[in-house]
Amino acid sequence: MIAADWPSVAEIYASGIATGQATFQTSIPEWTAWDASHLKSCRLVARADDGTIEGWAALSPVSSRPVYAGVAEVSIYIAESARGRGVGRRLLEALILESERDGRWTLQAGIFPENEASVALHVACGFRIVGRRERIGYMNGIWRDNLLLERRSLVVGVG
Q1: What pTM value is reported for the model?
Q2: Closest CA to 102 of 35, 153, 42
Q3: How far is CA 41 from CA 49, 54, 91, 101, 108, in A?
Q4: Over the Cα atoms of the chain, what is R_g?
Q5: Angstrom distance (rounded) from CA 137 to CA 80
Q6: What is the DSSP annotation of 31-84?
Q7: CA-CA to 85 of 20 to 30 Å: which in 34, 47, 76, 79?
Q8: Domain range annotation of the chain
Q9: Separation CA 94–CA 48 (nearest Å)
Q10: Each residue of 81-131: pLDDT tens digit?
Q11: Please, are residues 122 and 95 in contact by the beta-carbon 8 Å criterion?
């Protein structure tokens, strides 16, 4: 993903936000804010044969403390028109490989329990549910739970 991809990425992100099931985020940030809050590495887009972006995935640091340098949080969003076609799986698998090349030993994801497709995707890619954070965020007048999933690398940080 590069800055020039941002309009398409932002459109897909907005579609995810509109579902009310993808994120606590309520609006699309400017590119500079998004760029500053995500790792410079491990930013991917899935392109159709015609070059159209069908989905994106990126990592955010979970902490600035050096001990957590190998831990990152996953963001993955798929265009509505591309859902159910394996784009998410291919993108998440590619992100996992890229994260390992980048030295990340643990990936985590916070997912609304109602977002069953995202939970299933992450589990299919080796994530496990490690807990449920009850009433972790207040959104649109409703307290929302969040499942915490994580995937420990089998190649980075082993031993």
Answers
A1: 0.94
A2: 42
A3: 24, 20, 15, 10, 16
A4: 15
A5: 25
A6: HHHHHHHS-SS-EEEEE-TTS-EEEEEEEEES-SSGGGTTEEEEEEEE-GGGTT
A7: 34
A8: 3-152
A9: 16
A10: 999 999 999 999 999 999 999 999 999 999 999 999 999 999 999 999 999
A11: no
Rounded Cα gap, residues 56 and 2, in angstroms: 11
The amino acid that residue 145 corresponds to is: D
Distance CA 87, CA 48 (A): 10
What fold characterizes domain 3-152?
A: Aminopeptidase (3.40.630)
Six-digit token string for 136: 């972790």
Q: Which residues, listed in sequence order, are joined to residue 116 by a DSSP beta bridge?
A: none
- Is the pLDDT at 63 greater than 80? The verdict is yes
The answer to whether residues 122 and 150 touch, using CB atoms and an 8 Å cutoff, is: no
Strand partners, 47: 53
Q: How far apart are CA 106 and CA 151, in angstroms?
A: 6
